[in-house]
């Protein structure tokens, strides 16, 4: 992945990508090694369980989510975070409208397609 963003990323200059089913995303910055994204969920929206080879570290910016990682589920609120090991099955259910701040290493090339 040769693309990368500038060193400063201004939220006002970024467009939301509608992912459907009450979820949308903004890519906040990336290069080949790392990527950060803001994911907004409407109440009841489901981040379907999946896995990927990337390590993911996330923080709940707002709202409340039931996050499941490798069969363990925890209710998380603003300020809470979680770490997803590579290839671990994980997903989230939005309990109260909110935003997750996701960081991946390496960057998710599939998010740029």
Automatic annotation (TrEMBL):
Domain Cupin type-2, residue spans: 38-101
Pfam families according to UniProt: Cupin_2 (PF07883)
Gene3D superfamilies the record matches: Jelly Rolls
Protein name per UniProt: Cupin
Phylogenetic classification of the source organism: Bacteria, Pseudomonadati, Pseudomonadota, Alphaproteobacteria, Rhodospirillales
